[in-house]
Automatic annotation (TrEMBL):
This is DUF3107 domain-containing protein. Pfam families: DUF3107 (PF11305). The lineage of its organism: Bacteria, Bacillati, Actinomycetota, Actinomycetes, Mycobacteriales. InterPro entries: DUF3107. It comes from Rhodococcus artemisiae.
């Protein structure tokens, strides 16, 4: 699933492909925006990397559908 995070004072958005469910991502975002986890939004991408964003800088979060099969000669 693709998650796009808009960050204040940044011209680009953060794009994460995550194995977390939309409900899990929504719960993490809501918790961070309400001051949980010390005001830090923490998401894990499909390769296991953790992405941390200060919740006060989050302008929007777009939780997209699952990613379709990849086409081409990409190696995992």
């Amino acid at each position: 699933m693709e998650v796009k995070i808009g960050v204040a004072d940044s011209p680009r958005e953060i794009v994460i492909v995550s194995e977390q469910t939309p409900d899990e991502v929504e719960a993490l975002v809501t918790d961070a925006l309400n001051g949980g986890n010390k005001g830090v939004l923490a998401l894990v991408d499909e390769k296991g990397r953790k992405v941390l964003v200060q919740a006060t800088k989050v302008t929007y979060v777009d939780i997209g559908p699952g990613t379709a099969g990849k086409v081409g000669f990409a190696a995992n």
